[in-house]
Predict the 3D structure of the following.
Amino acid sequence: MIRAYKFLMRPTVGQQGALAEMLRDHCSLYNGALQERRDAYRHTSRTTVRYGQQSAQLKDIRVFDPERQGRWSFSSQQATLRRLDKAFAAFFRRVKAGQAPGYPRFRSGKRFDTVEFPKDGDGCRWDSTPHDPVTRVRLQGVGHVKVHQHRPVMGMVKTISVKREGRKWFVVLTAEQARPEPLPATGSVVGVDMGIANFLADSNGGFVDNPRYGRKAAVKLEAAQQALSRCKRSSKRRRKAVETVARLHRKVRRRRLDHAHKTALGLVREHDFIAVEDLKIRNMSKTPDLKPDPGQPGAFLPNGAGAKAGLNRSIADAGWGVFLAILAAKAEGAGREVMAVDPRNTSRRCPECGHTAKENRPAQEKFHCVSCGHSAHADTVGALNVLRAGLVRRDARKG
């Protein structure tokens, strides 16, 4: 089992400069490798340059530029080239699938924030001794950097990454560890219906409020972004405004993650089996297509784009995808089972008689079956149907 750990680094002023130079030089390597692939495809009969060819050139690059490329770890530079190779692999996969291609782009120094070391001991070393109160990570070309280790690292460290977030530096570890002992069985099963008015509703009639962290921070974000738009480019004042906007976004992200972790942990501790909706969030948050006006060429009919934009913001603010990923990870570590089911008609099907109709849900929160007269909260009905579908699927899989 692989688990990730993220710790705050406390570099000195000199180490901060070295870390920034490491990011800059890896960014330059990434952009140079991208340029080579572009030139080879355009000017040499559409030849494709692959990772193996570019990795073989690293030794010559390090000899040619010892000040900028020769001082850093060879394996970390290989990881940067693999990063570009994965970007091209994803590009070709999207092309074959008929999706928006998203050709790999050149990175500026402001948008290149991570350097990976594929193996502990090769250009880096995680130094955490039980009797030393200070934890350090040794990075080639930087030195021994102090780390605020707020919890112990279990298992064998496999990879180490250095990440910059604003003015702070973090080290991210992945460790291979034995699967932990499962939590004691509770005998409880639950279905979960995700929503906007409430973050989620469960099949037992419980609700978790939607914190709406993005909406709460909207006023401050709007003011910060307006101040940013008035700043002159490349000025010191603009750099400070950019940091302010980024800091507000990071705060919203941290609060959303904290809420997702706590909510998922509560479900995992209380229930052995959790049924959730298999939501296609990307499809749900698509912009509506344009509607040309047949009577007036060049004009378009109203398509509800304004209302859909507000719904898309609410979906993004709720963070369903992050929550479901965290729930699955915590359930795996605790020995619980999470089952994803088809969400279609879960809020329109009566849990008493099984009648399914659009008229069963006359309002956002109200469910009233037109066949048998059963009434309940619409989200609770959806969670009940999700649970039943999950149990049926679990039994079919076991059979």
